[in-house]
Amino acid sequence: MDQALLTFHNLLTEEMYVLYTSDHCYKCVPQHLVDVKPNNNNESAVVGTKFALTIQVQSLNTNTTICRWSQTYEEGGQYSVWIQMSEAPSDVSCFQTVDEAPHNANLPLLVATLLLAIIALLFVLVPYIYRRRCTSDFIKTICCQGSQSSVDNDGPADCEAADSPSKAKPTRLLSLDAFRGFSLTLMVFVNYGGGGYWFFQHAPWNGLTVADLVMPWFVFIIGTSVVLAFRSMQRRGVSRWQLLRKITWRTVVLLLLGFCFLNYSPRDGPLSWSWLRIPGVLQRLGFTYFVLSLLQTFWGQNEIPSRAHHWWNPVQDVLLYWPQWLIVLLLETVWLCVTLLMPVPNCPTGYLGAGGIGDNGLYPECTGGAAGHVDRWMFGDNMFRYPTCKEMYQTTQPFDPEGLLGTINSVVMGFLGMQAGKIIICYKGRNLHILSRFLVWAIVLGISAAILSKCTRDGGFIPVNKNLWSLSYVLCMGCFSFLLLGAMYFVIDIQSWWGGQPFIYPGMNSIFVYVGHSLLGFYFPFSWEMRFQASHWEWLFQSLWGTALWVLIAYFLYRKKFFLKI
Q1: Which of the chain's ends, N or C, has fewer CB atoms near its CB within 10 Å?
Q2: How many CB atoms lie within 10 A of CB 560?
Q3: CA angle, corner 385, sides to 380 and 391, nearest 5?
Q4: How far apart are CA 536 and CA 117, in angstroms?
């Protein structure tokens, strides 16, 4: 799977050697592929098909490049490269033939997409058609009509009363639950391998894949939920001391879950400090939640003024919370100063690369620059040992994508989510204002990310990088988050075209689904030892099957009104 066979035929009288470089690897040192002896000898080599490869044939005697080309090979294909004299005197040429045609690696994904599209269409159309049956005046008198959505997303949904508008109980903001559930479902899918497709796995270093989207979306939702939930508790008269106890308890539970349970694997034996990973996903989520909650507890309980006409009304959701903005800007200043100005031994200041064979092999021990140096100094070996850059860049240093410096920008990402919650509160009942402000935020963040990255993968001032949680990455993900939440808010909460199914079910039991799939996801019936590993069919089926089971479990828990909360 994800491999092709190249056979090199040397028809010359001198020995050749072949080098290769992945075009996705930034300024990487060419790596040896195979040596081909002269006089009609041949050698074969297996190459990857995920990214385009630059292959060069060089003479062993003169060390000069004979041929050089770049191509994306297709899965399962067998190719021959003939190295021979061309028609022109003293000229050498290389031409390529296809010995065995590759198979369509994307066919399983196309079939699965079609089936999921049909299922999704049914989920949307069936409830919509059912609701359309209640349009006549007669049926309206006997059907339960839903009241308008409120902004309390702290607890399970309440049943709605249809006697009168004054007696109707508010419901949850379903778009936020659907957004959370969509992010979590996608996270489970990519954690199961995403069918083995490279774009469902994390980028080797710079750049974006589908797997790089889900974590910041989840952090964004945490920020939005904090604002809405704390607003609801403020209305109920919950004291600041009670809020602090609740915040501390949730943070401690998330940290313990991350430290003890998600670090454990039966093959590792008893819990041991020698392999305990200190940074982690739940650890980062817990710390981010703690900081955001403190910001909201001490500087986010301002009353929204009456809708009098003031010059600052268009930006009241920003100016009312200026202490929060000041703290977040200070945190981002710390990230920028440490990342770009802190000296790192044997590394250039401000280095943001992967090290290894990248950057012409000049900085092999500089993986992650200042971020990697800080984490290795603080955590030693108790961090992630297999970063996504290890295979392509051949790095030797451990690097944790949930490290300390990246957690600062995780707080910034969550704060953007808090801004979405403030917009919903400040402009409650004025949906056009909410959607337009979401769009403005998305445009501003998107343009900022484009400037920092120069709209390139590797050549920007600060490249988009999930491993580092770079500033451009946070701004880019903030743009996507505002767009996606705004679209779901319009479709679900304003127009009621879709109820958010099936994503609202895992969205309302996110802790249970995430911890459950992390602990049990690699046991039967969620996964099994695959027998047909030469294609994506079984791997994709297994990934979809495991994800669907957790969505189904979340649905049954929803029907039983069981919601795991901490």
Answers
A1: C
A2: 8
A3: 140
A4: 19
Count other Cβ atoms within 10 Å, centred on residue 115.
11
pTM of the model: 0.88
The token pair that represents 69 in the structure block: 């080309």
Residues designated as active site: 202
What tokens appear for 28 in the block?
């990487």
Buried/exposed code over 469-508 (b: 16+ C-beta within 10 A; e: otherwise):
bbbbbbbbbbbbbbbbbbebbbbbbbeeebbbbbbbbbbb
Q: Cα(162)–Cα(565) distance, rounded to whole angstroms?
A: 29
**What number of other Cβ atoms are within 10 A of residue 544's Cβ?**
18
For residue 86, which phi and psi values (nearest 5 degrees)?
-85, 180
> Residue 347 and residue 268: Cα distance in Å, rounded?
35
N residues, the chain: 566
> What are 72-120's pLDDT values in tens digits?
999 889 999 998 877 665 677 888 999 999 888 889 999 999 998 888 7
Question: Domains of the chain by range and CATH?
Answer: 3-100 (2.60.40.2890), 144-559 (no CATH)
Which residues, given as ranges, of the chain have pLDDT below 70?
87-90, 123-124, 127-128, 131, 133-171, 261-275, 301-314, 533-534
